[in-house]
Design a protein that fits this description.
heterodimer, A: alpha/beta, 5 helices, 38% helix, B: five-stranded antiparallel beta sheet, five-stranded antiparallel beta sheet, 40 helices, 34 strands
Chain lengths: 118, 1211
């Protein structure tokens, strides 16, 4: 069974690219969200196994969203943070927010996501 | 020892003896005969003796060793065996018996070794002899050299004859060495032994020692001679050896025999042998002592009755107590060797018990006698016993000493009178002695005699007869006391008394003795007393002293003085009047002294001297001197009496001198007069003057300056008068008169005269004395007047004063002179006086009436030349005006305040007045602090106070209040200054920094906004890049990778993705371009302001009409203008709802004017948006300004004015 993914990003073009890329590599994209609140709602509703989460969202920080997702009861999704910035720009926030890992947007691929899930 | 042990011992002896006899009997080589028999007998004798000794004294090991000697000795018989083995063993053990033998000799008779060495000797003997014999067996097949028939040596290992010889020699040496050691130890024992012990020791030691010596000789003989010679000695050894047990038994037997001594003692005592001797003989102990118990004295005594230590046991000494009827009688202290025979000692002691008791009583008698003898001999009295024949029978030690003989035996037996009576009295004494016979009643006799040593003695004798039981006088006992010393002393006292009496009688003082009641003792007055007071010696005694010999007027005082002496006080000499028999009154200086008590009556000596005549003469002298002193002291002249050398004589100075000069006699007497009265620098002169006066024929007087004690100077005139003192010596009376006051007045007068002259001559004032009519008399001008007006007195005499005054001032001068001429004083007036050369001299002067010498009224004109002062005042006035002009011209605020902070007259400058609305006249006298804002008032007050004290004041900024209430910020400081009157004041100097501060604030805010604007722009740029182009490029990257992966399997899908990517890329490029334009419009850089504005216009959704001047501008100015337009158009689009916009950029008068006007809704707030504020800052950086006019409903006009500097010429 394909792993289910929720894509959270405020840029439609990236969401489209991410969906196309991941689906072509065997992931099932179950939903998209363009900001933090929508992301939390979608995650609660869809219960995806993976949340591909942009760090910079219009309404709240991706780290806050990640924190909320990881602390919810039941099976928390594996959060993969993405950003067009370099991961080093965020210091140790990525390591401490509970996310499974970080993938620069330009390097996003199903293989990169799978590598972090292993 | 038990019987069983005894039986076993005897059985063993029997067996051993039998075996030995059998071996010897069957031996092939044994030498049978008397020697062998003797040897066996010796062994048996040792064993038997040993067993006997053990039987008697089981705890004494002597018996053990003795028996052991016997048993081991018999083992030697084994050496006679024919069996090789037995022979060899017998050979080895042949010398074993010498080990116990040596032990026996060392322990006899006590059974104990006395030292470690002694204990070791038997082991050494046994070990050495057996060891050497065994060694010899190992190396010598025939150890018994001379034995031809001996069996072979069973232990022979090697045949080493040389070694055997060596062992033989060694054996001899060791044997001799051990023998010597043993003999030495025995000798030591003997030496240490007490006689009683020796008695026991000697039989055994003699026989044993002999045996050893023989053995040693035998060894030596064997070694140096031959075995044959040795064989001849051997029997001797056996005899001696066998004699040892016999000797032992002899000793034991002797002890037993001694038990019969008790009867011998009794026999000896019966026959009169002294007890001690009898006991010594019976117990054979010459060291024996007897101690007797004395129950009366509760102590031990010796036979002489002398106290002795309690008899006690000690090493080698034992004590046996003797009692009779359960009473302790005596103790016998004897040699411990007798402890072995306690029965002997006790039986002897019991036998001697009676005698001991007797001896004890004798000893006690001795003791008592000794006590009496001691008493007699230690008594200081003489005791002598004289026979009825007059011979001395006995005497004590004191008697011997008194006799002058050294030995008491020289005294005993002599006639009493030959020893104690001087030859010339001897006959009389003999007669008296014979007269006293035969009863010799008790008698006393004071005996003066010279003894054998030539000493004169006085003995007081008392004698008494001693009667025998029949009442016959057998002797006379005389006791004497040596009274020599007492007699000497009495004689000495007598002589002394006579001597004192002689002194008292010949003394000039009046002496008498009184008792404590004051009664004169009989015959207790001396010749002087009797003679002076006119009494016969026998008449003086028996009267109370003060009642008979003292003037009744003085009697009470005398009595009190004597009472005080009687009470023990010391009383000084008094003068009182005594009375003679004829009633003459004598003044007597007298004392009373307590005499050392002779008997119960205390006696007191009154000793007086008649001073009547002396006192009278003294009084006369005093009276005379008092009279002279009174005269001298009442004279006002200063009198001082000098010795010829100038020092002050004894009578010193009179009262007038002391009163005036402050010195009295104590200060002066003995010192030269000039030393005291003249200071150091005048002393020499004064001394010379006085010395001259003391020289006959010279002027005898002079003047001088005398210094008082207080340092004042007195002028005196003095004269010297030679005089003669009481002793006739030449002295000089210096009589001085104080002329100080006279001198002083003269000097004062002179000084005043001089002073007046000097005053007028040196006074800078112009002084002239003129007649009432205004003319100058003679001698009327002072030098200042002459000099100032350049006129000499000669030229001016007779001239009119008014003629010297400037005609314009002449009238006032006339009035002034007239006022003075009428006796008053004119006011001070200022006039111009004329010099000789016509120059004017400005004089302030007045005229005063003064009395002339002839009583007429004159006019004193006194004035001061103020010409120069006037000139200076004028100059100062001008300078002040100059300074005032400057202070009024400077833009700084100046205020002069006093130390309390009040502004002085004309204390602020024009700048201050203009800025703060206070005219100088208004603020004068007000506190300058009123100008300060309230919060700065304290700081200002401190600053002014500190400045007044010279403390530097840094510039400070405070708010100053304008008169209308507005405030200005003023930077100011304060300085101490002094005005023309010399007052200390403070200059406050400040300048208005209000505008500058506001501008500085604006600049600071503008700079901050520029920085903020730049930061905002960068933030915005980053956000735009991130959100725009970067996101598109990211998506593009992902899409391209996807397309790449799809290309082989899904070319169509890949193509579709690539197509979408191209669109995305185009949009990214558009966004980047837009962004770049926002950062800095490239068109502005490339093509100038006009093209750039055109581009803005072209992009504007609202129609824009633009008019841009074409002059080239500095890039910064062009950029500022561009942004004004760009921002304004953006605002128009955003807010204005305008239908048209006009843009105009023009350059005129060195300024660029940018205007953007719309027809929109207006109401814009110039400070509201960050855009307009940013523009404002940008313009401010170029010194430009931005104005926004935006009335609501009437559109908005944005106007920027930017100053332009000529563009830098481009290269």
């Amino acid at each position: 069974m394909s792993p289910t993914v929720l894509i959270v990003d405020d840029h439609p073009s990236f969401r489209f690219c991410a969906r196309t890329t991941l689906e072509s590599e065997g992931f099932e994209v179950v939903g998209e969200a363009e900001d933090g609140q929508a992301a939390l709602a979608a995650a609660a509703e869809l219960e995806p196994e993976i949340v591909l989460l942009d760090v910079q969202l219009p309404d709240m920080s991706g780290f806050d969203v990640c924190d909320t997702l990881c602390r919810q009861n039941g099976a928390a999704p594996a959060v993969i943070l993405v950003s067009s910035r370099d991961g080093a720009d965020y210091g140790d926030l990525i390591a401490t927010c509970g996310a499974r890992g970080f993938v620069p947007k330009a390097e996003l691929s199903g293989a990169a996501v799978s590598a972090l899930l292993r | 020892m038990s019987r069983l042990t005894l039986a076993l011992g005897l059985s063993l002896l029997a067996v051993e003896t039998a075996v030995a006899v059998a071996i010897v009997a069957t031996s092939d080589h044994a030498e049978r005969g008397p020697t062998i028999a003797l040897a066996v007998t010796a062994g048996v004798a040792f064993v038997l003796s040993g067993l006997v000794a053990l039987w008697r004294r089981p705890d004494n090991r002597t018996g053990v060793f003795m028996a052991a000697v016997g048993y081991t000795w018999l083992l030697g018989a084994l050496g006679e065996s024919n069996s090789s083995w037995v022979f060899s063993i017998g050979y080895a053990l042949g010398s074993l018996a010498f080990a116990p033998f040596s032990a026996l000799l060392l322990v006899h008779p006590t059974g104990r070794f006395e030292s470690r060495l002694e204990r070791t000797v038997p082991w050494l003997v046994g070990g050495a002899l057996i060891g050497l014999a065994t060694a010899k067996l190992l190396v010598d097949p025939t150890p018994a050299a001379s034995c031809d028939g001996c069996p072979p040596n069973a232990f022979d290992v090697v045949d080493a004859p040389r070694l055997a010889d060596v062992l033989d020699a060694l054996e001899s040496v060791v044997a001799i060495g051990l023998a010597v050691l043993l003999v030495g130890l025995l000798a030591r024992r003997w030496r240490r032994a007490a006689p009683a012990l020796r008695r026991l020791l000697w039989p055994v030691l003699v026989t044993g020692g002999a045996a050893i010596v023989i053995l040693v000789v035998d060894s030596i003989v064997t070694a140096v001679a031959s075995a044959e010679a040795s064989d001849r000695i051997a029997p001797l050894f056996f005899v001696a050896f066998a004699a040892v047990p016999a000797a032992f038994l002899f000793g034991v037997l002797r002890t037993k025999l001694a038990q019969s001594s008790a009867t011998d003692v009794m026999a000896a005592l019966e026959s009169g042998t002294p007890l001690q001797e009898a006991l010594v003989g019976a117990l054979g102990d010459p060291t024996l002592e007897i101690a007797y118990w004395s129950p009366e004295r509760d102590s031990w005594v010796d036979a002489e009755g002398r106290r002795r230590d309690e008899p006690a046991s000690a090493p080698g000494r034992s004590v046996t107590m003797v009692e009779r009827d359960a009473q302790r009688v005596a103790a016998i202290v004897h040699d411990s060797a007798l402890d072995g025979e306690p029965q002997l000692v006790e039986s002897v002691a019991a036998a001697a018990g009676m005698s001991l008791q007797n001896e004890r009583l004798k000893a006690e008698l001795h003791a008592q006698y000794a006590f009496l003898e001691t008493v007699a001999n230690t008594a200081p009295s003489l005791l002598v016993v004289v026979g009825t024949d007059g011979r001395i029978q006995n005497q004590n030690a004191a008697t011997v000493v008194a006799s002058g003989y050294d030995d008491e035996e020289q005294v005993r037996g002599q006639y009493f009178w030959d020893v104690f009576i001087d030859p010339r009295e001897r006959e009389a004494m003999i007669a008296r002695f014979e007269a006293a016979a035969p009863d010799f009643p008790p008698a006393e006799y004071e005996n003066w005699f010279t003894n054998a040593k030539g000493e004169e003695l006085v003995i007081d004798w008392r004698s008494a007869p001693v009667h025998d039981e029949n009442g016959e006088v057998v002797s006379i006992v005389a006791g004497g006391i040596d009274a020599t010393e007492r007699h000497h002393h009495a004689a000495e006292l007598e002589r002394e008394r006579e001597f004192l009496n002689a002194i008292a009688n010949n003394a000039p003082s009046l002496l008498c003795l009184i008792d404590a009641e004051g009664r004169v003792a009989h015959l207790a007055t001396n010749k002087a007393f009797e003679h002076t007071l006119e009494y016969a010696p026998e008449e003086t005694g028996g009267y109370v002293f003060w009642e008979r010999y003292v003037d009744p007027a003085d009697a009470n005082e005398v009595r009190e003085a004597i009472d005080r002496v009687v009470a023990g006080e010391a009383v000084p000499e008094h003068d009182h009047h005594w009375l003679t028999r004829s009633g003459r009154r004598l003044l007597i200086a007298w004392t009373c002294t307590a005499l050392p008590a002779l008997d119960e009556r205390g006696l007191f000596l009154i000793s007086g001297v008649d001073v009547t005549e002396r006192k009278r003469r003294e009084a006369e002298v005093h009276a005379e001197r008092d009279f002279l002193s009174a005269v001298a002291n009442s004279i006002p002249s200063l009198l001082s009496l000098l010795e010829p050398d100038g020092t002050v004589a004894a009578r010193g100075v009179n009262r007038a001198f002391t009163d005036l000069m402050g010195y009295d006699d104590d200060d002066l007497i003995g010192r030269p007069l000039w030393d005291v009265l003249s200071p150091e620098d005048e002393r020499e002169e004064a001394a010379t003057a006085l010395r001259q006066a003391l020289t006959p024929g010279r002027p005898s007087g002079g003047e001088g300056r005398w210094h008082t004690r207080d340092g004042d100077v007195r002028f005196v005139e003095w004269t010297v008068i030679p005089t003669v003192d009481a002793e006739g010596r030449l002295q000089y009376l210096v009589s001085a008169t104080d002329v100080t006051e006279r001198e002083k007045r003269q000097r004062e007068l002179q000084w005043e005269r001089d002073y007046a002259n000097i005053l007028t001559d040196t006074n800078p004032s112009l002084i002239a004395v003129i007649e009432r009519d205004g003319t100058f008399p003679e001698n009327a001008l002072n030098p200042a007047f002459e000099t100032t007006l350049q006129r000499t007195e000669a030229e001016i005499v007779g001239a009119s004063f008014v003629d010297l005054v400037h005609p314009e001032d002449a009238e006032a001068a006339k009035i002034a002179i007239a006022v003075a001429a009428s006796g008053g004083q004119s006011e001070q007036i200022e006039s111009r006086w004329l010099r000789k050369d016509g120059q004017e001299v400005v004089v302030v002067w007045s005229a005063t009436a003064i009395p002339g010498f002839e009583g007429q009224t004159l006019v004193l004109v006194s004035g001061l030349n103020i010409t120069d002062r006037k000139a200076r005042e004028l100059e100062a006035e001008r300078r002040r005006d100059f300074l005032n002009a400057i202070t009024d011209a400077v833009p700084s605020f100046l205020a002069v305040v006093d130390l309390e902070g009040a502004v002085v007259e004309r204390g602020v400058n024009r700048a201050f007045s203009d800025a703060f609305g206070w005219a100088a006249s208004d603020i004068a006298g007000r506190s300058f602090l009123d100008v300060m804002a309230q919060e700065d008032e304290h700081a200002a007050r401190m600053a002014i106070a500190n400045a007044a004290n010279g403390v530097f004041q840094p510039e400070r900024e405070t708010r100053w209040l304008r008169r209308d209430g507005d405030t200005r910020l003023v930077a100011w400081t304060a300085w101490p200054v002094m005005d023309h009157l010399g007052r200390s004041l403070v200059l406050v100097s400040g300048h208005d920094v209000t505008v500058r501060r506001t501008q500085e604030e604006e600049i600071r805010a503008s700079r901050a906004r520029l920085v903020e604007a730049a930061d905002n722009a960068r933030r915005k740029l980053e956000r735009n890049l991130h959100d725009g182009a970067q996101q598109r490029l990211v998506a593009l990257s992902v899409s391209l990778r996807l397309a790449e992966s799809k290309l082989p399997v899904d070319p169509a899908g890949a193509a579709s993705i690539l197509a979408a990517s191209r669109v995305e890329l185009t949009q990214a490029l558009d966004e980047l371009r837009e962004l770049a334009r926002g950062i800095h419009p490239a068109v502005l850089t490339d093509r100038g302001l006009g093209a750039a504005v055109d581009a803005l216009v072209a992009r504007s959704p609202v129609p824009v009409e633009a008019d841009v001047c074409s002059s080239p501008l500095q890039p910064a100015v062009e950029a500022a203008a561009y942004y004004v337009v760009s921002e304004s158009l953006a605002n128009v689009v955003k807010y204005a709802q305008a239908s048209s916009v006009t843009v105009r950029i023009s350059a005129e008068n060195g300024h660029v004017l940018v205007e953007v006007a719309d027809d929109g809704v207006g109401g814009a707030d110039p400070g509201g948006g960050s855009g307009l504020r940013g523009l404002s800052d940008r313009l401010a950086a170029l010194d430009g300004t931005l104005h926004v006019v935006s009335p609501a409903g009437s559109g908005t006009l944005v106007r920027a004015v930017i100053p332009v500097r000529p563009a830098a010429p481009t290269a």
